[in-house]
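Supplementary Methods S3. Complex input for the adenosine-5'-diphosphate-bound model.
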Amino acid sequence: MDTLSFDRKELRDLLALFADQGLGSPDVCAVAPGRVNVIGEHIDYNGGLVLPAAIDRWTCVALKAREDGMVNLRSSHGEVEPVSFSVEDLAKSEKRCWSNYVKGVLAGLKRKGFAFPGFDAVVLSTVPVGGGLSSSAALEAAFSKAVLELVGESMEPLELARLCQKAEHDYADVPCGLMDQAAVILCEDSKLLLLDCQDDSYRYADFDDPDWGLMIINSCVSHELSDGGYARRRDVCHQAAAELEVGTLREVPLAELDAVLAKDFMDEEKRRYVRHVVTEIDRTLRAVDALAARDYALTGQLLNESHASLRDDYRVSCPELDFISKTAQALEGVAGCRMTGGGFGGSAIALVRRDQADMVAETVADAYRERFGIEAGIFETRPAGGARSWRC
Ligand code: ADP
Ligand code: MG
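Predicted complex, serialized as structure tokens:
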């Protein structure tokens, strides 16, 4: 593929930054988008269905081979330092260093039998970092694509997504499902990705109505709770599945939910989590049908119900996300709004009429600033394409 099919300012800035580092021109470039989950939250690790889209924000990597086996990384992201290590030493750094994502990917490629040289790499990204939009998956996908391109190899997309997921598990200690990595690799323009996390099969759902868009509202907060909170819910869900003698909670039909919740071993916490998972899977399926019928009122209602379930049953929301969702839901031009991503901060997603998007953005930003004194990061996006790479 040539660079013309990714003719964007990010890429031009990246190439300028690469040259500024005295590195000349790169051998290869790769780009990967962030992602937003439209509906199906905290479902991927429960074997259910999720409906993400890639967003039109990109992590771009330029890379040039070196002969001395060293990997030198730089990023335009203001909060991280340059890092160097040898391709022979891909052990995880103890501290939470951004190089761990790259090392995890390189270790995965090595495990698959790919041999690669050292390299200089520069990263430039417009994906908000730590905003629940998967800048980490974008980083993993961009690096894995770039290194494969450098050595003239390729991998099947789902296999590549699993490699990136393992990097996130082993090198960033985030026990995530496959959704983020699958989304940033597999998504296509103007489509949502319906991923069945039971067997990793997927299909696309059109989102090509020119009148409607996805609005991302980044709360710009991240609450400490998130570390243990995610693992705790995952563990409780898996325990509930084991007690119910099913592989995952996906196998609990909505019609049997009440009977399941009445079982002896269901304590209050477990009951809430199971109820969220089972109803959220149902909402996701109904949202796909509603979108296919261009029934935005129903889709929006399902988003609103998803938020309530995440707030009250799964308890992964926070006052900021509750405020944003409630404010947006009340506006004309917004079909629905909910928190998206892992929660405890990060972003909300709203389904908006594009001709009202500016008004919605301004109203939510003003209200949020007044209530919390924080400037929300708001932008509208259409579903974008997935990660790609090319020789320069
Ligand atoms: P999210 O994936 O929701 O954005 P995470 O906490 O999972 O948030 O990942 C953010 C981390 O990923 C950052 O702290 C950093 O280590 C790494 N990262 C993401 N994007 C970049 C980037 N452009 N440059 C350097 N590191 C990045
Ligand atoms: Mg992440």
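The chain has a mean pLDDT of 95. The longest strand covers residues 52-66.
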